[in-house]
Amino acid sequence: MAAAGSAGVPATVLGKQEFYQLLKNLINPSCMVRRQAEEVYENIPGLCKTTFLLDAVRNRRAGYEDPHPRVRAAACTTLGQMATDFAPNFQKKFHETVIAALLRTMENQGNQRVQSHAASALIIFIEDCPKSLLVLYLDSMVRNIHSILVIKLQELIRNGTKLALEQLVTTIASVADTIEEKFVPYYDIFMPSLKQVVELAVQKELKLLKGKTIECISHVGLAVGKEKFMQDVSNVMQLLLKTQSDLNNMEDDDPQTSYIVSAWARMCKILGNDFHQYLSLVIEPLIKTASAKPDVALLDTQDVENMSDDDGWQFVNLGDQQSFGIKTSGLEAKATACQMLVYYAKELREGFVEYIEQVVKLMVPLLKFYFHDNVRVAAAESMPFLLECARIRGPEYLAQMWQFICDPLIKAIGTEPDTDVLSEIMNSFAKSVEVMGDGCLNDEHLEELGDILKAKLEGHFKNQELRQVKRQEENYDQQIEMSLQDEDECDVYILTKVSDILHSLFSTYKEKILPWFEQLLPLIVSLICSSRPWPDRQWGLCIFDDIIEHCSPSSFKYVEYFRWPMLLNMRDNNPEVRQAAAYGLGVMAQFGGDDYRSLCSEAVPLLVKVIKCANSKTKKNIIATENCISAVGKILRFKPNCVNVDEVLPHWLSWLPLHEDKEEAIQTLSFLCDLIESNHPVVLGPNNSNLPKIISIIAEGKINETINCEDPCAKRLANVVRQVQTSEELWLECISQLDDEQQEALQELLNFA
């Protein structure tokens, strides 16, 4: 069968061996090889390559397909891999055929392993399948899965068969997660069977099944919501309590542990404050697991060789016939327990207060727990949430806790070796400063922090130089380039966290922090030099944006450092750089004082030019463009003497509404309210001719969820609509230009604001 394809090779060219090689490449861990395979994949007609796999999944013989169960299982695995590698385009192109084929394979009772692989592939496919596509098959798919569940449950009862059932309950959880509230009609047919699985899975070999089913029940409850789930919540909680019993009675590597811990967290999210009654039953085992010391050993190399891989130990050769070993099975449980403690502190706040002292004494030392990255991440994440809880006990208690946290947190920024963990620690510090506010850092802390941030910025520049040197070396090739790009991305990510920390200091200390900041000023100025890579310029501009926004009018003393970079970068090819420049020009007008008048005047034509560019509304450019529109609005609003308002205002109105940048969108709507409430003649137009446009802008704001009914601006906009409604003729003219969705959005605004 030949399949048409505009740029591809004919289907007949792709033989069995070539296709198998392609599949091997797709799963190859080498990123470069996989990217090359992607190019090949995109140039093969979709119908051909997918039909090959689907025929293999369905057990068809057609030319070179093999009906062997191992081939069918491998085909399922490959479909899952493609669903991951090419999401969401793969799902959009092949949703109908893939879902049908995998469901039929799951129904086939011939081979448990093939069924399990099909269920696994369906889980992966569903995760990145747009909800709008999945609902097309929802009823038949869900009822099909339920029929399979009933059959598998009977097999469990009769002969203890569990493999396909383990994957099936995970599939149900994935479906519920994806379709959320649309799972409500199916809740009553699934929940009895799921609870029965938990009750039946009592043998040791069924622990994993029990854990996965408990996980599934919690996902289903989260999907359908508290109101629907309440009919079973008491029974489910008893099942959970009975299963957990006491984590002390479980082995460290019990497969149920992580599922139960995560399920409790989802139950907390479902029940909210009603969960408090169960917290005491959950928290102590969690703290015990999170506090567990790792098993370590120093062994002779001969002893290491005699140990089985199943023992759960990892070893590092130290030379001299000795190896250092650590038992890793308990580390995962420790990391999960730490993450759940973070979750409870975040969700329960007041309900968690009685445990914060115990938890903070556990978490702070774990910032140096180098055996497991996720333990350190959880320790860092917990800090701002624990401080929020401590605030409930009053300022003195909060200050004492911050004193305990602050110094180790700063030191961890300077010593953390892993980039991903470091970014979390820096993020935690920034959030903690925002919780604590002005004056939270003493002189010693500021001095140490300044040295660390200076070292991070200097290291950023040094690493860029070293990468350029490597690009000139004789052995430089594409593989090395990809590695260098990965290193660069890591460096830039740390740069964003430096920006976050500075943002927290500028927003809390205001202009008082500027003398301290000046030690970093030359490095920030270097970031925005025209010769720097665009991410450097983006984040350098963001730092100056924060100075202008939070330290004005004192910020003007640095204007010569950023004036021309900010104006010139309005023409930059990268939308991220244009966005940073446009935002800075907007906050100059809003917060900058009279010193910025001439700069605001210079900015307007540059902003307008970007907005009017032919491709300004494309997906790539829209955020930058909306920041330009917002900046023009801020200049009109806060610096009206810098621009001919009556000339620019009609253009500004024609650019509304903003859709993508919610924060800037609400700023523009607030200004629009000012103009309407003052009966500005240019905005209202001759004989109120602009009101239909204004009403449509308000409707779109509600549809795009820019307007939050609890926001003061929502009430002002609703009052505008009500005022127009007082003139029946004018109102009819306005709504005649709206579609049904827009009219419904206006009615919803009027009902709730």
What would you note in describing this structure?
71% of the residues lie in helices and 2% in strands. The N and C termini lie far apart (60 Å). Mean pLDDT is 86; it is low at 1-49 and 60-65. Among the domains are: 249-299 and 313-390, no CATH class; 662-753, no CATH class. α25 packs parallel to α27. Strands 1-3-2 form a three-stranded antiparallel sheet. It has 753 residues and is mainly alpha-helical. β2 and β3 form a beta hairpin.
**Which stretches are low in confidence, meaning pLDDT under 50 for 5 or more residues running?**
1-49, 60-65
Distance between the termini: 60 Å
Question: Strand count, sense and closure of the main sheet?
Answer: 3 strands, antiparallel
User: If strands are numbered along the chain, what order do they take across the biggest sheet?
Assistant: 1-3-2
Gross morphology: globular
Number of helices: 36
Percent of sequence in beta strands: under 5%
According to DSSP, the number of beta strands is 3
Classify the helix fraction into a percent range: over 70%
**Rg computed from alpha carbons, rounded to a whole number of angstroms:** 30 Å
Mean pLDDT: 86
Backbone structural class: mainly alpha
